[in-house]
Every structure is written in C-alpha cells, then in structure tokens.
Amino acid sequence: MTSGPLDEVAPAIPDGGETAVVEPATRPGRRARGRHARGRRARGQQPVATFRPGRLARLAAGARRFVVLSAPSPEGDVVVVDLATSVLARLEGLPGIVGAAQLPGGALGPFAVLDVPSAALGPPNDPARPESHRVTAPASVAGILGRRRARRLLRTLLAPPEPQLLGFAGPSWPYWELRGDRPSVAVVAPTRGPVVYRRAEDDAVWIRFGWHRTDNWLPMTDPVVTDAVMASGRTRLGGRALAAALGFRPSYLVVVVGRPQEGYCPKLVVAILPRP
Q1: Strand order across the 172-174 sheet
Q2: Is residue 236 domain-shared with residue 184, that is, in the same domain?
C-alpha cells in the first residue's frame, strides 16, 4: 500500500510546547544503598533486585538462550534471537516467565535475555511463520544484554536491501500461497521516517517508513508505541516528536508476517528499537 513521497511526512513535527529538562540521575553510594536496604528490611519490605545490563546468569544444562526483540504481541508471540546461532525465532504461548519482575518496568522488553528448556520448544508447524516455536514450559530471565553485544547482534540481523520486504509486495499475502520457504520476520533500518499515525475512525496505530525503494504503511502493534501515541493526544508523530514520546530515537523496526485474517497474512510492525 503506497501513496505520495514519504519525504512529505518525514520532517520532524514541532511539539508546540516547552522542552522538558531532565536532571541526570545519580547513583547513590555504597553506604547510601546499604542504609536504604536496612530501611526496607526495618519496614518489613524486601530489597528490590534488578538485572544489570551485561551480567547474565549461567546457562542451565539443556536450555537455549534467546534475546528478546519485541514485547509479547496481541497474537501471543515474542520475536527473539537465538544467542548461540544469531538466528531469528518467534516464541508462542509462553506459559510464564520467571524473574520478569526484576526487569525495568517489571515487564518483558527488548534486549532481555530468556533461557528456555530445549525440551519445551516445539517444532515449527505453520508455513506462514517457519521461525515459530510453541513453548510448553516457563522461561526464565537471565539478565539484559549489554549495549556493545546488542549493537553487534543487531548489525548481523539487518535485512539486506531487497525489492520487497519479507519477500512479497504489498501489505499482505494469501495464506494458501505461503510454503514456509520465506522468512516471516525481519529487522530493518528505515531509510526514511518512521512516522506513526493514529487513525481517527478506529484509533488504530499505523506506521509509515521508507526502506530502500519501498514506501511502507503497516499496522503497529508495539504496546509501548501505541501507548505513547495515545498519551500524546496527537494523530501523527515523527522526527523529534516521536523520539520524545518514546524516550529514544527510533533506529530499527521489527516486521513480521501476522496470522491469517480472512485468508490473508498481513505485515505488522511489532517493535521499534533504539540503537543500543
């Protein structure tokens, strides 16, 4: 689905308000942290443990380690990368995640590291999504991937320049024509945009971006992005306005082939990622 040149909407959108000044966070000293912990214990509260980027728990025997690229989608799957092979995968039906409360915000997000028992990973069984695996046992959070390692990993995952994103033209493709011989997930670095829109008629959030010679309009399902758009009260966010709403500058998009809808599988953008 295409329309006029993307350059018409790519420039930054003025915020129309004052720029908020955020004071840099300071890390308390060791003595202060100790006093805070003693105070929590005195009040009967447990110290809150959080994962620190780059420090990963030891991999248990018989488990596979994955790096998360997208939060759980409305369709119930999570886009991940197998850390041992740098291969993209999609995990479906996670029955639980041990340790998620220790992640920033208490929720699963990009660059979290999951350990999944190998025996709990079912084989792919959908020709529209050959990277998909159904998980039958809880995963455990091993930590958060460090910035340098995440940056190197993303560089290896970027989709090469091709005439058609995910191997077919347009925003969807007939389910009956998918044979499992083409990828259903891609990490792309937009060449123009992105610009996010909220449609007035149904409040659906869409994203427009350029990728090489293609102009793409696709539905957006990333809950962080949709919540930011709704909170802004605006119908279009791009450039510095989008970066301010998200809290980071958009650098990468995770695009997938969704489940069939009336016989057609749509392309969906499930995550906007920063540069680690």
Answers
A1: 172-174, 264-274, 250-257, 185-188
A2: yes
For the segment 74-118, what is each residue's pLDDT rounded down to a tens digit?
Answer: 767 899 999 999 999 999 988 888 888 788 777 888 999 999 999
Domain boundary (107, 135, 152) is at 152
Q: For residue 164, what is the DSSP state?
A: S
- Which of helix, strand or coil describes residue 258? coil
| Cβ contact 245:197 at 8 Å | no
129: containing domain: 63-152
pLDDT at 13 over 80: no
118-129 confidence digits (pLDDT tens): 999 988 778 888
Largest CA distance in the chain: 64
Q: Do 270 and 196 belong together in one domain?
A: yes
- Provide the pairing of β-strand 87-92 with 132-134: parallel
Residue where the block lists tokens 């891609």: 186
Alpha-carbon distances, residue 178 vs 77, 127, 144, 172, 267 (angstroms): 19, 6, 35, 11, 13
DSSP structure string for 67-94:
EE-SPPPTTSEEEEEETTTTEEEEEE--
pTM of the predicted structure, to 2 decimals:
0.78
